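Re: that chain you flagged

S.,

Sorry for the slow reply, it's been a week of failed gels. I finally had a moment to sit down with the sequence you sent. For the record, here it is as I used it:
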Amino acid sequence: MENYTIKNLLKAYKDGVTSPTEVVGDYFKRISEKDDGINSYVNISEEFATKQLSNPVNGPLAGIPMALKDVFTTKDIETTACSNMLKGYVPSFNAPVVDDLYDAGAICLGKVNTDEFTCGASTESSCFGPTLNPYDPAKVSGGSSGGSAAVIPSNLAVFSMGTDTGGSIRQPASFCNAVGLKVTYGRVSRSGVISMASSLDTIGHFTKTVEDAAIVLEVTAGMNKKDATTVDVEVGKYVAAMDGNVEGLRIGLPKEYFGEGVDPEVSKKVMEAVEVLKFKGAIVKEISLPMTKYGVAVYYMVAPAEISANMARYDGIRMGIDLDPGAESVADQFKRSRGVGFGDEMKRRIMVGTSALSAGSYEDYYLKAQKVRTLIIGEFENAFKEVDVIMGPVAPTTAFKVGELVDDPVKMYMADLLTIPSSCAGLPGISVPCGFDSEGMPIGLQILAPQFREDLLFKVGDAYEKETQFWKQSV
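Prediction finished late last night. Pasting the structure tokens below so you have them in one place:
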């Protein structure tokens, strides 16, 4: 079962080499033997998977074992957002994207770890503890989708679902040697997926290969009536787009993505990846995205404001834990429930966001940040008039040590320096493994494309991957 991809596992089923029941059983055995050292799974759904296997669905993901980030609402399976606030919550419905995956035949192995309510860059704010990096358990797996990333090189799922608000798929994918896809805002329905920042949240996934990422997106993409932010744009034939031909394709390299703060080893591996595509006929051009330096500041004003609004419902009355039913006042009830239910990072972001939205600060902070966000969007639009895709590192460094940045939130926020600008612009992006540093830690190549041009991500990413195949170096 080592390094099963969706494509080769479907072939193994077709050829009678193995069966979904045998494979799913092997995955559960591997999880029980290996996951204690990684802490990727927070809920294992063996009973539910058995029910799925007894009623097989013949679809494009038939019998493929997957893991779901613990913010995807799942009927009869606990969904906690890895927060004490939601422990014990068992939904009565599935998120539409989960139904799409089930209808395609995917088998749910369980829910995987995330930063609390997806707020974080290291999975260290989870109430279940951090997910450790499969390549070095002394280091983080990234975040917030750290559990979703870690299961891929560990062979604890064939693919996994995650969310990306400011880099929460691409960064952990880079740290864990996985392919991580962030879609265009509105490409995949967010309905039934617990919100963080509603104007930034996107649904994506982790796979071993670029082709597998294309297969999954053909299942999950599309307009959904339950989500007004989804757009009626035709779902592409993403697998067919991967023809290996990048002759004449224009690649833009933002000089700001290779500047101060970016580890030289990371820059070197990314430039080696660019040279592979250049050898295959791509045209490389240096570009400038000067608004990059404002991305983190914009994000950490807009996102906390939206987090503050979204978290208001978790008050121990409408939603969340009720720890003090005998409270003397509503204020006391709120204070107790939210004080115990939320962790430090959530409280920090709620306070920042509430302050930004207050009457005396709204225009100076939140509104100004949204205006700068518009400038970032315009800058990308102009860049894509000159180039077809933009490339650079996913993160300034490889995975950092567990606990290293916990007490320095500003440095932790800077881990998403190179992914946040494209998130502010609602662009699709992908992280593709492009090698390892001198300590054996993975490095990801980030590819960005115009809105709803995921086909370009797959075309370019697949052309590069076929020449290198770093994904095969699993653990």
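What I noticed first: The mean pLDDT is 95.

Talk soon,
D.
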